[in-house]
Amino acid sequence: MQVLETRVARWVVTKGLRFSSFPRYGSWQFFVISSRKRHSGLVCMAQKKSAKGRQKVATQQDSSSSHQDVQAPVPENAVLIDGSILEGGGQILRNSAALSAIMRTPISVEKIRAGRSKPGLRPQHLAGLRLLEALSGGRLSGGIESSKSIVLEPAALQCGAFEGNTGTAGSCTLLAQAALPCLLFASPTKGQDMSVVDLRGGTDAAMAPPVGYLQQILLPTLRRLFNIDITEKLERRGFFPKGGGRMSLEVRCLPPGGKLPAFTLTRSGDVTSININAFSAGKLRGGQAGKLSIVDRLADSAAAVLKQSLGRDVDIRTEFTEETEESAFGDGVGMLLVATTSEGCVLGAAAIGERGKSSEQLGEAAAQELVEDIYAGGCVDRWLQDQLIIFMALADGESSMTCSEPTLHTRTAMVIAEKLTGAKFTVRRPAPRSQEPWTISCEGVGIAAGELG
Length: 453
Description:
Layout: H1 2-14, E1 18-21, E2 28-34, E3 41-48, E4 55-61, E5 68-69, E6 79-82, H2 90-103, E7 107-110, H3 123-136, E8 139-141, E9 149-153, E10 161-165, H4 172-184, E11 194-201, H5 211-226, E12 230-238, E13 245-252, E14 264-265, E15 271-281, H6 294-310, E16 315-322, E17 328-329, E18 332-341, E19 346-352, H7 359-375, H8 384-394, E20 396-403, H9 408-421, E21 424-428, E22 438-445
Parallel strand pairs: 6-7, 10-11, 12-17, 14-20, 15-16
Antiparallel strand pairs: 1-2, 1-5, 2-3, 3-4, 7-9, 8-9, 11-13, 12-13, 15-18, 18-19, 20-22, 21-22
Helix pairs in contact: 2-3, 2-4, 2-9, 3-4, 6-7, 8-9
Family: Belongs to the RNA 3'-terminal cyclase family. Type 1 subfamily.
Protein name: RNA 3'-terminal-phosphate cyclase (ATP)
Organism: Coccomyxa subellipsoidea
């Protein structure tokens, strides 16, 4: 039986397909053959009929998801990544795959999302990997839902039109995070230096930065630091559990030979204003007569905490948006807090409506999070610090930023970036009982656009 399984696996790999096996059931062995571009495939069944090894094979359409991986052949020059280290989640996949594509280095990731209650690839992670496979013109092996190991062999990043679709409420912004650095280092195609990426799924999802954070925190910071041409457009919001959201990115690649400059973000300044941007959609719009709506309570509770913690001299402005059926799919409510400082830094925090928590709880928690990051004295919030790590590693020279204590996501991002690029990070802890922030510095490798082919 093992001989047959090995032969089939080898044949599948030579045809550019994917191969995974299920646990055995009695004398039957089940395995999956699927295409690189579709979720569907075939389930094959082989039964050992006698001691001489006669076998019977049958096929039927696949609708299964629980299976046991067969590791595809790993290129000799592949970098091995342990998906269970530190954060142990999807971030390891996103950063590893993005840097693999940029550095043109094959990777083999094992123990994928071992730190999660449902380990292995989920639809949103698979969508991200397939997007990066398309961006790099490469080849992804092991790209099946629930797979705990993958191999990505990138080719050359090229400008073009691409699509990433989680098919669920999985986060669009996490797809954007993975794609952004790759698009900057893509090569022009037939004189076209602009790429367009259509992203579909959840725009405002739990455990991920909402689309507003991308629009008002991440992208403005990247434009400020690198003077790059990035445009985003929110077509429609989408929420748990159905998703249905849609957004797009337009990114101009660096000129041939161009590099990301090193940056210094160490002067935070004083907070000059805070904007509270709250929205509601579907059945959560409006409120009952004589009662504050859900979104009103969300914003008011956040404003109360901010005023109490920062003083009433800080300019706090609130803006409400009632989404239409065209601008949002499903029911949802959320809020983004954006603090701007005298040095031009922007820090953010967000709240997304969820079952089991009141609007007041969510609003107060988001405001308290922002207050903590402001008092930490850094130039970036706890979410932006890990998103800038990949850019620090790729930049030309030494970059520095001040922040609150590095999160587990940030420490994980540094480990992956060092392993795949050769960049060197250092973290400086503030003196005990001092009012100083933490400092993260990096000696970037200065990758030039087009340098690696």
